[in-house]
Amino acid sequence: MSILGAMFTAVSGVNAQSKSLGHISDNIANSQTTGYKKVDTRFETLITVSNANLHQPGGVVASPSYANSLQGNVNQTQVLTNMAISGQGFFVVSRPESQTANQTLFNDLAYYTRAGDFEVNRDGYLVNNGGYYLNGWAVDETTGVADTSTLSPIQITQTIDEPTATTELEFVGNLPASSKVNPTPPLAPTNIKIYDALGNPHTVSLVWAKRADNLWKLDIVAADSTLDPVSGTLVGVNDQAMAIAPTTANVPAVAQVDTVTIPSDGLAFGQTLTFTIGSNSITVTAPVGGYTQAQTGAAMVAAINANPGLAAQVTAGNLTATTFDVSADVGGTPFSLTLGGSGSGQTDTITIPPGGLLVGESVTVTINGTPITYTATNPTETATFVRDSLISLINANVTVNGTITANAATANTFTIDADAAQGTFTTTVGDTIVAGNVTMTTATGASSVNTTANGLPVAQVDTVTLSGTVGPGEIGDTWTINVGSQTVSYVANGTETSLNDVAIGIAALINANSSLGVTATALGATVQLTAISAGTPFSATVNASNGSTNSFIDVQFGTSAATAGKLVGISNAYNLNGNASTPTAQSAGDDAIITFQVDYGVGPQTIELNLGKFQTTEGATQFAGSTIDVRRFTQDGVPQGIFKDLNIRDNGDVELNYDNGRSRVFFKVPIAQFYDANTLKRESGQAFTETFDSGSARLSGAGENGSGTLRGSAVEGSNVDIAEEFSKMIVTQRAYSANTRVITTSDEMLQDIINIKR
Q: Which residues have C-beta within 8 Å of that of residue 435, sequence separation ≥ 6?
């Protein structure tokens, strides 16, 4: 029995190694098969009798050992619908029983696989290369919760993404604090595209305009909506009026004119006449033969106009036979002149009777009230002797000496000359002579008199008186002042509390424009206009008109150090007929949300405009800038979308992507786990079915309850190690050869036994 037993055992060994080689062959053949799980060989001895005294060979049995739970390499692919499980678990798949053009029927038996090379077929199912259809849970598109009670093949029928109407706008941006009030041109509107319930696009515009410091008007324009968020016209009380009256008339500057009288006798040879203004002076000296009165005037005019210092201040002219004028070059600039020089004062000429005086006769010359008398003591005194005697008495008299000087002229005449320039005096002549006459002639000296007094200019002042109603309801009231050809208009913004506020606003606009030629001062309900240049007149007219403005939402920014530039208030008081509403709570940190409605033919659509939070910088702000700086302006509506592609998330969500930019999850891929995955029954196409030994499948989401996670755009390769299989193949070959050697040896030994019988 031992020889036969050895033979039978060797035959079982050959059979077992043959099975092992078959397993190795299968593994090597499927080394590149997606999701393939290798088969190892488990050898088990067959025991017949085996004790301390006897052992009968029983042989060996080879059985497969499955490595279903051994992870294969995960390889990236370019196919979005491919997926691989990283960790434990299997995909749940179904096998189709029949297919028609419109319907696919599936076998009720659940299949499981690790082959994740799924692609979308013509009917929208995810099918792998083995022909198995991926199963999944349906996901509620509203709540995002998967229905784990029902598992069915995933079929993508959601090829159209339903449009979503816009319900919220979010504005984050900065309004320029340096913007002018009601700027021209206006600031560009901020536009955004929104969608109605049908997915039709529409444009909503936010139109901002500064109406006062830290106050802005906001108009929400929905051009093709039958409902208007902001509408109506604000019209104030039509009682505005302006009146202008001259308070101080303009007076131009007057140029001073002095008239100079030339000495009637002119100037004798060597005599001078000096003309002085300030530190500038000229002197005219009579040449040989002297100057007549007319010649003296002509010489003086020429000398004044030729003197650079004098010519820059005055101009001499209007020369007559006895006078000429000196005029200031600049009106309103006064000057003072002095005249002096030898012979330029008063001169009186005393004529003595040619026959002289007899004894006892006398001649009296009274100068400035002082009589000076000469009485002849000689029988007959010549006129020349009398003349010289009187000259001596006059010049020796201490009362008149220093005021006048007596000088011999002709044989019977002498002159009494004023010593001071323009000096004058009074004289009379008396005599007690019996015969002859004593005469006196008077020559007036050079003098000047103010003909036209210097006149300083006076600035024109006009007073504009305002009247009418001011206040929040008077936005748009216009107050206009025309100065010359220029116009200044103040437009009420509703923040004015009195006419003085209007006057202050008008004055500020006028004073900011120096080219008007006037300055303005606000005095209560009046505005005073004063010419910048005195003596330069201006003409001004006024006009006031009742204003109107389109309705708006009032947006206010803070003025304190803590709130400057931050949103502090939103008022709907100026929105007469619009449907927009403003938040009730407006404390620090409260939401700044304006709610309004539009209607594009599918019913009212409510939209919230989110401007951030009050007293923060999270939304709308007002800081330095010249234009509206929009940092973010978004809306939550989407148009209709067409299915584009899908991708698988790590948690098993099947995310459908649409060409409208939205992604939605309609399915979730579960992971099936078994207590003993290696005992699953193998089916064709890398699929498995559960067995009694494997236990029932436990379904859970990817990454939950110990299951593996999903990798999109990836597949799991075979878990076959080629090098290992080659090593096992060599060992199997050796074992197979050794078993055949046992058979050969056993056969030879049996032949020997047979030969013994022979």
A: 353, 355
